[in-house]
Amino acid sequence: MFRLGGQVLVRGTLLKKFKDLYGHLCIPQKFVIPENDPNWPEKFYNYSLGAHAHLIRKARKNTVRKTLLLSDIKKLDEIGFIWNAGEYRQKLNLQAFEIYKKLFQKDIVEKNFIIPFDDNNWPKELWGFHLGNAFSRIKYRKKVPHCVKMKPVLKKMKFDMVAYFEKAACALQVFFKLRGHVHVPVKFVVPMKSIDYPEETWGLQLGAYMKRLYYTKSNGAETRKMKLRELGLPIPLTRVPKNKQQQHLKILIDKHFQDHVNSVNNSSSNSNTT
Asked: pLDDT-derived band of residue 43, with 50, 70 and 90 as boundaries?
């Protein structure tokens, strides 16, 4: 057993049992030994093992009082106790993506992908990990430090880290340049191996995406429309009701495009006058 400040903190047998069950000793702070679980000694049911593991980590950081004995630190190291949960999880994430890439050779991870249990292709500590959710967080969350740090790492591993909207915006800019309007046919898909469109947009269902963008009523859709307008694309901000025909959408886009052209011409005319 390990001691802290002269009091018994965590019995080594419980730590070893946790590792046997879960394959690691990165014990979540909220972990409580479940009641009526035959894997655990009955007298420790409802025992807050996670809270005590947290105290162990906290005690080691207290270099002034030195409440954790060096001999205990050595014993904990020997059984693989995790002192820094953040670093450990980041290392596990990286390992998981490396194995996924090796097994499936894909550039994305489907959002519903969970690492299967009892699969020896994966380390035991990764079983049950929601890798698809982790991939989505890293790809789309731009202000989370961990995600920002991991994004270039996954990009280097040949994962597709370009957000769908960014691809659509890029493809729409090319479409507008080639055709002079943004009335994208609903069934339009960016052609594969196109010399005009960037490779990351090949196969993109641009027409279906733009239809959803025009018909959707949400703050997110309005924000994306504004971003497209900022790129110089004549995107109407008026939402098209679902009960209207596609022709209504075409009229709306054409009208907005003409307003856009008139605005550009007027600006050019005014600058020539001055």
From this structure: confident
pTM comes to 0.56
Give the tokens for residue 46.
């409802």
Start-to-end CA distance of the chain, whole Å, equals 86
Contact 138, 157 (CB under 8 A): no
Q: Mean of the pLDDT values across residues 241-261?
A: 53
Helix axis angle for 12-22 and 49-61, nearest 10°, is 110
Q: What is the pLDDT of residues 91-106, one digit of tens each?
A: 888 999 999 999 999 8
Contact 43, 12 (CB under 8 A): no
pLDDT at 258 over 70: no
What is the DSSP secondary-structure string of the chain?
Answer: -EEETTEEEE-HHHHHHHHHHHSS----TT--PPTT-TTS-GGGTT--HHHHHHHHHHHHH-TTT--B-HHHHHHHHHTT--S-HHHHHHHHHHHHHHHHHHHH--SS--TT--PPTT-TTS-GGGTT--HHHHHHHHHH-SS-HHHHHHHHHHHHTT---S-HHHHHHHHHHHHHHHHSS----TT--PPTT-SSS-GGGTT--HHHHHHHHHH--SHHHHHHHHHHHHTT-----SPPPTTS-HHHHHHHHHHHHHHHHHHHHHHHHHHHH-
